[in-house]
């Protein structure tokens, strides 16, 4: 589908612009918007590994990591066996699968083109999986045995007692529900700032 654009990605094309002037334009592929599972598939990355940086899945907070790139991936594929690529670098390299479609276009690296999945990576990931878990662990680490449960119960009670307000969701059970949707995360975000 994008093959017709390939010639104009290297050779400029004269274009009549909306301001009336003619300019030489070179085209490129813009951001690719997808949910995380599709991003991982496109970037040939193992689930739970980052599609943007080279940090291992269990050390995402480390400062010692670089940016993922097509060039880096190709270099790793030449140097290491499949098992090492999977375990050490989080790369899915199966000879039967084609490389990312962007490999065949100039100046198009799939790792640079992927945009964040707002629901899963920002709303649910940053809030639920990071902040809520961090606060829970922090409370447990800094208080004696029975105290963390009392504090967490107090937080649940405050969330449950948030007054009814137009456009605001209520959580009568507090934060203790099994399946968090994106709407739940957004509403709890707003609710927590309202009740404190």
Q: Order of strands across the widest beta sheet?
A: 1-2
Span from first to last CA?
A: 52 Å
Oligomer: single chain
| Content of β-strand | under 5%
InterPro entries: Plavaka
Pfam families: Plavaka
What is the topological layout?
Blueprint: E1 13-16, E2 22-25, H1 36-43, H2 70-79, H3 82-89, H4 110-113, H5 118-142, H6 147-160, H7 182-195
Antiparallel strand pairs: 1-2
Helix pairs in contact: 5-6, 5-7
Polypeptide structure, described:
The chain has 196 residues and is mainly alpha-helical. It folds into three domains: 1-30, no CATH class; 36-113, no CATH class; 118-195, no CATH class. It is 42% helix and 4% strand. The protein contains seven helices and two strands; from the N terminus they run E-E-H-H-H-H-H-H-H. It has helices spanning 36-43, 70-79, 82-89, 110-113, 118-142, 147-160, 182-195, and strands at residues 13-16, 22-25. Strands 1-2 form a two-stranded antiparallel ribbon. The longest helix has 25 residues, at 118-142. The chain is flat, with a radius of gyration of 23 Å. It holds the Pfam family Plavaka. InterPro entries: Plavaka.
Briefly characterize the structure.
42% of the residues lie in helices and 4% in strands. It is mainly alpha-helical and 196 residues long. A two-stranded antiparallel sheet has the order 1-2.
Which labels suit this protein?
Plavaka; two-stranded antiparallel ribbon; mainly alpha; 3 domains; 42% helix; flat; 196 residues; 2 strands
